[in-house]
Amino acid sequence: MVRAMDWFRTNDAAGLPVTWSTRATPAFFGADHPNGICMEDAVDLASDAGCGLHINVPYGADDDYVTRLVALADQRLAAGARMNVEWQNEPWNYQFRIAGLIIAACLAAGRCTPAQADTRPGMGGGWGALLIEHCYQHNRTMKLARAAVKSSRELVQVLNCQQGTHYSNLLSVKEQPLDNYDVVMNGLYWGNDAGCAVAPYTPASLKTAWLASMNATLDRAAVVRDLAAQHGKGYGAYEGGPDFQGLGNAPGVTPAQIMAMSRSAELADIIAASYRRWSAEFPGCQWLQFNDIGRDDTQFAWGMQPDLVSPPSPRLLAFETAARTAA
After folding, report:
1. How far is the C-alpha of 13 from the C-alpha of 252, rounded, in Å?
2. 3-state DSSP helix/strand/coil percent for the chain, to nearest 5?
């Protein structure tokens, strides 16, 4: 499964409004279009790789864009390949300017009042509006996507959530009751706990803390999985892995140390352990992995490899081992 979220600049909303007439087409050379690359390239890559396609419909996409986007993918994607459709990416995430746009759109459309926008528990102002607009836009997008698929391929309607509490918040929305989803997906990050930023900062000394953090993350994932199952829905993860932002901010830790840790055998062991536990306890659940090149930074969660010429990283080796074992 190829999740082409960043390819379409889903997080930065650079090309609003998102219409079919202003989208990137195959005639556009490069990847710096306000709406990212063209859908044809993403579909063809998935087909060439022999896998399915996960589409993130961006904020600001009108009905015509959603219908044409999904129809194009349905017509062009290899026969029998599965297609996931998800509205936006992390609409709950205040780090993206999208969150502010979503809150404003909900209020402007009259789908909530200012009082309703802040009445629900959450991380910050406008949380209620984020929940209401998320449900509204998700329902709208999925109805259009379902109608646009004319082939017999499997269409999986994906609901993005943060953790179990956020999922429960979405289920509680009365103004726009949540509908039309098959699978709940969230991100799974570990290594950012306080215990993972305690000296001495070496892979050997931190391995136990890394393992505990990873297992705690999968414990939280099991909560979402079980809640989804109670509602007859599936579960999966759209991204995840080691996240060392906390360690990167620890006193005296240098970027060189972070790089050494991210390429350590100890970290490879923890990554492999996460795959083994996922396979054992989350059968049939997808866990999509970042495969970026050149994103090997202090966070580390983003990429398999720092470049195209370095020896295979522990993350890549662990992933390949898990894939061979599953095969």
Report:
1. 37
2. 45, 15, 40
Do residues 44 and 76 touch, judged by C-beta distance below 8 A?
yes
Measured CA to CA, the distance from residue 267 to residue 210 in angstroms comes to 8
Q: Which of 232, 234, 240, 215 is nearest to 284 (CA)?
A: 234
Provide the pLDDT for residue 293.
57
From residue 151, how far is each of 75, 78, 79, 87, 265 by CA, in Å? 8, 11, 9, 21, 46
**Dist. CA 256–CA 248, nearest whole Å:** 10
pTM for the complete prediction?
0.90
Residue 2's identity, in one-letter code, is V
Residue carrying the six token digits 């215990």: 195
271 within 8 A of 215, measured Cβ to Cβ: no
Angle separating helix axes 127-148 and 97-108, nearest 10 degrees: 90
Residue 131 is predicted with a pLDDT of 94
Distance (Å, rounded) from C-alpha 250 to C-alpha 160?
31
Residue ranges in the chain modelled with pLDDT below 50: 122-123
What residues form DSSP beta bridges with 63?
none
Return the H-helix or E-strand segment holding 265: helix 265-281
So what's the pLDDT on residue 300? 54
Rounded alpha-carbon distances, angstroms, from residue 13 to 42, 89, 200, 291: 19, 11, 41, 23
Q: Say how far apart CA 196 and CA 4 lie, in whole Å.
A: 31
**pLDDT (tens digit, 9 = 90+) per residue, 80-95?**
999 999 999 999 998 8
Q: Which two tokens stand for residue 90?
A: 């992390």
